[in-house]
Specification:
The protein is mainly beta. The chain has 3 domains: 113 residues, Immunoglobulins (Immunoglobulin-like); 102 residues, Immunoglobulins (Immunoglobulin-like); 102 residues, Immunoglobulins (Immunoglobulin-like), CATH 2.60.40.10. Helix content is 12%, strand content 57%. It is built from 3 helices and 26 strands. The strands form 6 sheets. Strands 19, 21, 22, 23, 25 and 26 form a 6-stranded mixed β-sheet that branches. Strands 2-9-8-4-6 form a 5-stranded mixed β-sheet. Strands 11-17-16-13-14 form a 5-stranded mixed β-sheet, with no helix packed on it. A hairpin with a 2-residue loop joins strand 16 and strand 17. The chain is flat. It starts with a helix and ends with a helix.
Length: 372
């Protein structure tokens, strides 16, 4: 028992430093040119209230990492200190075409004779982009904004020519499918003359007239000269609706205050404010009580839980039906559930029964131990 307690204390002492180092930026991109040297800066943050010695390192892609050098490989940071460092990359004339992922990191230093334990470490990515012979496009991002039914959705497709040759013609056919895989729309985007290592964002608006509220997927087939690539993006078309997902509550002691929980989810792309929750309690079809909760707001396409309190004074023990109603923007949503009132005497009887069972179990355990 004492050992377990000491382990728990040690674990709690370690917890505050679990997030005590930071590094930035999260990502650095290097566009490779033969024989060119690169120098980049990054920061390491000591977020702890005590000083820390950190080891700096470079790891990752075995071909590219050997050309990296750090300005420092070890540093001592004061409490709450942010310090800048640099790395240089001295590349040869040739690297294998494509993307090379290198990681630059900082980790807590362990001195000679130090105990082996988990060390806090943080890393940033360095992406070395080496042009590919011929023509080669990468999709850097493909996004379709969620919107409300009847309003346009913004589509943005960012592409980069990672090859060594100019791409003459780009045609992107984008099909929009609903949750049942039924095609809802098609849009075509075109462009031309994309030079090596250059990027472009192809944009358009998708008209959602006739779209039903729900989840959609956009599939892009991108044809450039004689080559092809593809990408997908998910988005939602919303309706002014807050769905009641679940109505529930724990057993309530008789003549006390019970909590009734209402899980909900917004189907709207804007914040819905001043949502008023109300519960109706009934038994065998007869309304027993009605009460309201505090008004709340819900962010676009998010889920949450609200609580309504019920005063059970004067009510008998037993199971009750609960209807929850959310009122907002001249609309309502409903859900049903159940809640149980238990008597004080029954609660004590259950507790006593639990204690008796526990004592009997202990007695059997020790009896077997002595006989063994």
């Amino acid at each position: 028992m004492n050992k377990l307690l000491l382990l728990l204390v040690a674990f709690l002492l370690i917890l505050p430093v679990a997030y005590s180092l930071g590094i930035g930026p999260a990502k650095i991109q290097i566009d490779f040119e033969p024989g060119k040297d690169y120098t980049n800066s990054f920061i390491v943050v000591n977020e702890a209230d005590v000083g820390k010695t950190v080891d700096l390192y470079v790891t990752g892609d075995t071909e590219a990492v050997k050309y990296f050098n750090l300005s420092e490989t070890q540093a001592t940071l004061k409490p709450k200190e942010t310090r800048g460092f640099t790395f240089t990359a001295n590349f040869p004339e040739n690297l294998t075409p494509g993307q090379h992922k290198v990681r630059v990191g900082a980790v807590e230093h362990v001195g000679a004779g130090g105990q082996v334990s988990a060390r806090v470490g943080v890393e940033l990515f360095v992406l070395v982009e080496v042009p590919i012979p011929g023509k080669y496009i990468t999709v850097d991002s493909f996004e379709v904004s969620s919107t409300n039914a009847g309003q346009p959705a913004q589509l943005n497709l960012k592409i980069t020519n990672r090859g060594k040759e100019t791409i003459n013609q780009i045609n992107a056919a984008i099909d929009i499918f609903d949750a049942n895989r039924k095609k809802a729309a098609t849009v075509i985007l075109t462009d031309s003359n994309l030079a090596p290592q250059n990027s472009k964002v192809l944009s358009t608006e998708i008209k959602t007239s006739g779209f039903i509220a729900g989840k959609y997927i956009a599939k892009a087939d991108i044809l450039y000269d004689d080559f092809k690539t593809s990408a997908e993006a998910n988005f939602r078309v919303g309706d002014l609706l807050v769905n009641v997902l679940r109505v529930y509550g724990e057993d309530v002691n008789k003549d006390s205050i019970g909590k009734i929980l209402i899980d909900f989810e917004s189907q709207w792309s804007e914040t819905i404010r001043n949502i008023r929750p109300e519960i109706t309690i009934s038994k065998t079809g007869q309304i027993i009580s009605q009460t309201q909760g505090s008004e709340f707001s819900v962010e676009p396409f998010t889920a949450g839980t609200t609580t309504v309190f019920w005063d059970t004074r004067g009510q008998e023990a037993g199971e009750y039906d609960v209807k929850a109603t959310l009122s907002y923007e001249n609309k309502t949503s409903e859900g049903i559930g159940k809640i149980k009132i238990v008597s004080f005497e029954m609660t004590w009887m259950l507790a006593a029964l639990f204690v008796i069972i526990a004592l009997l179990s202990l007695r059997v355990f020790f009896k077997k131990r002595r006989s063994g």
